[in-house]
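Entry: DNA-binding response OmpR family regulator
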Amino acid sequence: MATVALYECVDGLVGDMAEGVPEGVSAGRVLVVDDDLTVRDVVRRYLEAAGYSVELASDGEQALASFAEHEPELVVLDLMLPGIDGLEVCRRLRRRSAVPVVMLTALGEEENRIAGLQLGADDYVTKPFSPKELALRVSSVLRRARATPPPPVTPKLTDGDLTLDTAARRAELAGAELSLTTREFDLLHFLLIHPGEAFTREQLLERVWGWDFGDQSTVTVHVRRLREKIEKMPAKPTRIATVWGVGYRYDPMARS
């Protein structure tokens, strides 16, 4: 009943969002995965009002089957699912696709949220949430995913024993290839071409990934993951320095 009460005003708000959406025009194909029927229905109506074509799934198995059949452009994924949970669904999706994922998490599920971001989720919304905000986040994430990144300024970057080949999208440390996610690679590339400059988390969200809004903890998670892969002592980093009260700065090895 609490869920129903939370969204009891949905019809009027959906009507407002539908104004100005050209009939028969789809803004994209979205798969919504949640075991709560009310949540699925509300999210579906909001997204359809915003012009999206929506597929629904109530558990992990249905989600993976629907993804294979419909090939959506974005997945809205609840982490707490019966059977195959949302984290495992995200993990399996990342093995086969770079499709954007917006997670739905309950308040207080910080560990699951961080795990989802580490697996490659693009954004998250905490329950109870505003369906209108979720629709806006879906639009923002899809816009970023569809944007063509500018060509790299330098095809190969080197800092001591660290090498980044932007053309091949490969990174090596002391001759061994690093396993970096897309976002980790983009963050490292940005830091390498701006040595010695301090950036806030908000600036990194916008300039590295083009996020016009989002949770700044995403940056913290990816910085920590990068440190684990490129620093000799991640707890005492010499390359990616924390600038207290500001954010982060990349210090080339020659300066360390």
